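Postdoc handover notes: sequence design on the structure in folder B. Input C-alpha cells:
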C-alpha cells in the first residue's frame, strides 16, 4: 500500500464503498492560486494524478487555465498543450480514476475527451456555444458551476438578492439547457462555485444552506479547497488552509454534497470517512464484528 493511501479493507471492503466521491485537482498551469507551476511538466502532473488516486480520488480534474481572480486568459492551443499529455499519460498508465478536463473551451474539451477524459468540468456551465454539443456527442459527464461574471471581474463587489436562491435559479436554468441539449441528466453534477463572484459571507451562506441546492436532484460538487474565504476566516496562508478545507467539506457533506474537489485528497478522505460513518444512515453497510482501535 502506498504511503497516504487509505486502508483498502476499510475503504472498500469491510465497510462498503463510501457515500462520497473525491475529485483530486491537478493544475497544469504556471499561475494557479495554490499549486501554480508545480505540475507544469507532464511527468510531474501524471505522478501527482497517480498519487491522488492512491489516496482515494475517484476523479482526477486536470486543468490548463487558472480561474483565480484576475488570471490571464490562455489560448485553446496553449491549454491543449498543457492538458493533453497529462490526460494521455494517465490513460496510458491505466488509471482507474475517471479523467475530467477542467475547461470552458469546447475545442479543449473535445480534444481531451478524445485523449481519454470522460468528463468536463466547466466553470461557465456550458457558456461556450459549442460545449453542450461536444459533451452530449461524447456522452460525457459534466459539472455545471455557478459564477457571477468572469474570472477577471468576478470579485469586484459581487451582489445578490439572496445568494442561495440566485445560484439555485441559475443552476436550474443551466440544468434545463444541458438536458435540452442532449446531455443525460444522470451524467450531470452541479456546483455553487465557491469563491467565484462571492464574498466570504456569500460562500458561508451557500455552504450552510447547500441542502437547498441538493433539492435540485443532481449530485452537488463543492470546491472549497484552500480558498481565500478560509484564509479570511482563519488568517492562514494558502499552505495552511487544510484544516479549514476539511471543516468546510464536512459541513458540505452534512448538507448533502457528495463530490469534493480538493488538492489534499488523503486527509479529506479520512475526515469524510469518519463523518460518513457518523452521520450517514445507510453507511457503513456491512459492519464487521472485528474490534477496532
Ligand atoms: N475551483 C477552481 C477551479 N475549478 N471547478 C469547480 N467545478 N468548482 C470549483 O470550486 C473550482 C473549479 C479554483 O481552484 P484551483 O483549480 O485550485 O485554482 P486555479 O483556478 O487558480 O487553477
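Designed sequence:
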Amino acid at each position: 500500500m502506498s504511503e497516504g493511501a487509505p486502508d483498502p479493507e476499510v475503504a472498500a471492503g469491510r465497510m462498503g464503498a463510501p457515500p462520497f466521491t473525491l475529485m483530486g485537482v491537478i493544475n497544469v498551469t504556471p499561475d494557479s492560486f495554490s499549486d501554480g507551476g508545480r505540475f507544469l511538466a507532464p511527468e510531474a502532473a501524471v505522478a501527482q494524478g497517480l498519487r491522488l488516486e492512491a489516496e482515494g480520488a475517484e476523479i482526477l480534474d486536470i486543468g490548463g487555465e487558472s480561474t483565480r481572480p484576475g488570471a490571464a486568459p490562455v489560448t485553446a492551443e496553449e491549454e491543449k498543450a498543457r492538458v493533453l499529455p497529462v490526460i494521455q499519460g494517465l490513460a496510458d498508465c491505466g488509471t482507474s480514476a475517471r479523467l475530467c478536463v477542467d475547461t470552458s473551451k469546447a475545442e479543449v474539451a473535445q480534444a481531451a475527451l478524445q485523449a481519454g477524459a470522460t468528463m468536463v468540468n466547466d466553470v461557465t456551465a456550458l457558456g461556450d456555444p459549442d460545449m453542450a454539443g461536444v459533451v452530449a456527442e461524447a456522452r460525457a459527464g459534466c459539472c455545471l458551476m455557478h459564477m457571477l461574471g468572469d474570472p477577471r471581474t468576478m470579485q469586484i463587489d459581487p451582489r445578490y438578492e439572496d445568494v442561495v436562491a440566485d445560484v439555485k435559479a441559475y443552476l436550474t436554468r443551466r440544468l434545463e439547457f444541458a438536458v435540452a441539449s442532449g446531455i443525460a441528466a444522470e451524467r450531470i453534477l452541479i456546483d455553487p462555485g465557491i469563491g467565484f463572484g462571492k464574498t466570504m459571507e456569500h460562500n458561508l451562506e451557500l455552504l450552510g444552506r447547500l441542502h437547498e441546492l441538493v433539492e435540485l436532484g443532481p449530485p452537488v460538487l463543492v470546491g472549497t479547497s484552500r480558498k481565500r474565504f478560509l484564509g479570511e476566516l482563519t488568517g492562514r496562508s494558502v499552505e495552511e488552509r487544510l484544516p479549514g478545507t476539511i471543516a468546510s467539506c464536512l459541513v458540505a457533506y452534512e448538507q448533502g454534497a457528495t463530490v469534493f474537489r480538493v488538492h489534499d485528497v488523503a486527509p479529506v478522505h479520512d475526515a469524510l470517512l469518519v463523518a460518513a460513518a457518523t452521520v450517514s444512515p445507510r453507511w457503513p453497510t456491512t459492519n464487521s464484528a472485528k474490534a477496532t482501535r
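Context for whoever picks this up: DSSP finds eleven helices and eight strands in the chain. Don't rerun without checking with the PI first.
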